[in-house]
Amino acid sequence: MILFIADTWCYFLICLAVLLSATIVMSIQSRGFVTMGQGKKSFSIFDLEFPVSGKALINLITGIDKLPPAESARSKRALKGQLYVDFIYMPGVYLGIFLLCMKTATKIPNVGGYIFAVLAWFQLIAWLGDIIENLFLLAKIRNPEEISPGTFKAYQVLELIKWGSALKGFFFSCFALLFFFVTGKYASNPLSYFYCLLGELFLFGLITYLTRKVK
Amino acid sequence: MAKKLKPEDYYNHPDVTGSLKKLQEKFGANYNSLIVSDTLDDDGHQYVNLVQKGGGVLGIALVGYTYILEMAGIRFLRLAGTSAGAINTALMTVIGDKKAMKSNTILDYLCSMDFFSFVDGHPFARWLIKNFISNKSFKTTMMVGFGGIFGFLVLISILDILFLGFGNKYPCLAGFGLWSFVLTGADLLLVLLIVSYAVYLFDRLKACGFGINPGITFYEWIKEKMEANDVHNVTDLKQKAETLPPLHLRPSNSGTVDSLTGDVTFITSELVTENKIELPLMCDLFREDINEIHPAAFVRSSMSIPVFFESYIINQIPVNSKAVQDAWNTHLKIPAESIPETVRFVDGGMLSNFPINIFYNPKVIEPRLPAFGIDLDDADPKKNDGNNAAQWDLGSYIWRLFNTVRYYYDKDFLEKNAVFQKGVGSIKLFGINWLNFFLKDDEKLEMFRKGALAATAFLIDFDWPEYQKERIAMQVKLNDKMKPEN
User: Fold this and answer.
1) Which of A30, A147, B36, B208 has its CA 20 to 30 A from that of B449?
2) Three-state DSSP class for residue B428
3) Which residues in chain B have Cβ-Cβ distances shorter than 8 Å to A168?
4) Nearest Cα to Cα of residue B453 among B14, B33, B54
5) What's the CA gap between B229 and B295, in Å, rounded?
6) Which of A166-170, B313-317, B329-333 has the lowest mean pLDDT?
7) Helices and strands (H and E) in chain B: how many
């Protein structure tokens, strides 16, 4: 259950690079998300992930078709594009958190280690959930037919599992690793990886700033 | 499970039947000696104009009031209302013809309606509104909850430091330190989720034009009721409102019925051009073919309580159309180049919650029928915070500013034309929150009962000859003032 992975931090940095690159592309795409309610309004991917009801989800999707043709096509292209890029984003985020949790599991003896190992394996379930979610949304964009209450309930549960697993895995493992960091319980070679991580984050911040007006 | 109320439970309430009995004792079994108007139909119904005030769910009391008026043989020629008053006005217009009694059908609609379904916003917003309005200790519970989460974060951070410090001296504490850190992460996650969710909801609110509830359920409901009564478009609505039975005047009245017309008016506030809009009268401002807009939209726009409901928006106004340009010039004196492509409506109560002024016709000297008004008064009769005006908190101060501005328009008219006040009956509804869409059946019944009692008291006191006399005197005095030599 607990995997000892050599060069965990190297793999983590690769995942982070994938995740951050995809985030830049997706945030640019999300600026084009527009739909028609009573009037034209922007929306975010969270409105699709946590809709008020199945009807609200369908209204949001069909609202895109009510925009002027050029704008509608642009908005739909951006939305579909983001869902496709999300497939690249997924391995970055879920494998990244998987590695963080598994690394933590190897550092904690007894039950504690197993708790983090379970959290790590849950990331694969979250990943699967995210894939199902994207396929469902793409299908609804193609054919926005009514969603049954049962399907909508299952969709909500899927979202809760996905977000719950990922957030818990990330926060719990980060804070556990922070404990090992401040108590000095780490090998010296990961420090070079830490500097690389800071470099990646700096680069991400810089590119995000430079592309803040790109649509 | 409590039994669902039926219309009979409302009109068979002892106070309601008692009210009718009281009126019969005073005016006769068929209310024959009750005189409120000089305009009559062949069945002996007396006609009045009626304006109904807005007030959220307090509008149920309006039905109790109109039920008594109708039972006493009073019918309505011209109708006007704002917000909740617009809802009752719309239903009274579309149900049956002018002679028909409407309140029974409206009660039927009320009994089968789930008020809470009108609060059709995000489930979290629904939960929050419900608890804030119906649970008095909710605010304290929320404060304790937030305090607990943030307090725990402070406490656990202190423990982190202590475990770290003592961990060097007592290695057995190191394990506790690790889990203390993990708990810090868990609490911080909770805080971040709360903050992120609050930011997300605010962004959502912004994207929805700062309205919590879309109001789609209400729109669909009122549309369904209109269509069930054969009102499918604005022309149908106008026709219903204008079609009158044969009318005649009491012999004592020197006027004629020729110029009497029926109509309906819903008041709404338009934010783009900053105007009071009377619908359906002014609906030609927005479309060449007025039937492109469903009349349900007029009621929906009149009851768009700011923030509680999304504003009602009409897009794609054909600004280049000659007919539309003429309408803007006629109604609002707005030139063609200033006509907006989109208009945004909020609750008519922002400008005129009690639009009795629309029934004032300066050409009439001797009135043929009175203008009745139903006022909803939820003010605390014991509260008089004028003595501590200097100590109001910010909320009270802003609320007073807001009320002073929004009430003045109607108040000014009534002060200058005091005779109209004689046609106004007031329903005292202190203690019921006007935004409480989670009303229990007994609360609905109580409001209906209060409406019925207020109507009874009003009819007993109303003196038509005196009203007529004062209205004539007022107009003669005004006409004198208007003479060139004055």
Assistant:
1) B36
2) strand
3) 186, 189
4) B14
5) 13
6) B313-317
7) 15, 10
Q: Which two tokens stand for residue A167?
A: 């957030």
Task: Identify the CA nearest to B130 among candidates B468, B449, B437.
Answer: B437
Encoded amino acid at B471, one letter: R
Helix, strand or coil, per DSSP, at residue B196: helix
Write down the H helix ranges in A7-51. Answer: 8-30, 45-49
Which of B167, B178, B207 comes nearest A41 by C-beta?
B207
Nearest CB neighbour to B164, from listed A52, A112, A183: A183
What's chain B's average pLDDT? 92
B467: Cβ contacts below 8 Å, ≥ 6 apart: B367, B370, B419, B422, B423
Q: What is the pLDDT of residues B235-253, one digit of tens each?
A: 999 999 999 999 999 999 9
pLDDT bracket for residue B2 (50, 70, 90): low
Q: Which amino acid is at B152?
A: F
Q: Could you count the other beta carbons within 10 Å of the beta carbon of residue A54?
A: 19
pLDDT at residue B1 is higher than 50: no
3-state class (DSSP) for residue B385? helix
Give the count of alpha carbons within 13 A of A12, CB side only: 21
Q: Give CA–CA dist B66/B102, Å, rounded.
A: 9
A20: its two tokens: 């951050």
Residue B331 pLDDT: 97
Type and span of the H or E element at B375: strand B371-377
Dihedral angle sign, alpha carbons of residues A179, A182, A185, A186: positive
Say whether A52 and B122 touch across the interface (CB within 8 A): yes
Query: Where does B378-461 have alpha helices with state H?
Result: 394-416, 441-461
How confident is residue A187, by pLDDT bands cut at 50, 70 and 90?
confident
- Which among B167, B185, B200 has CB closest to A171? B185
> Is the distance from CB of B59 to CB of B448 less than 8 angstroms?
no
User: Residue B466, Cβ neighbours under 10 Å: how many?
Assistant: 11
DSSP state of A146: -
| pTM across the whole model | 0.82
Closest chain B residue to the Cα of A33, Cα to Cα: B207
Tell whether omega for the bond before B171 is within 30 degrees of 0, i.e. cis: no
Contact A52 B164 (CB under 8 A): no
- Tokens 């000095």 identify what position? A184
pLDDT of amino acid B486: 61
Q: Kind of pairing, strands B263-270 and B275-279?
A: antiparallel
Q: % helix / strand / coil in chain A, to the nearest 5?
A: 80, 5, 20
Per-residue pLDDT band for B52 (boundaries 50, 70, 90) equals very high
The Cα–Cα gap between B371 and B415 comes to: 15
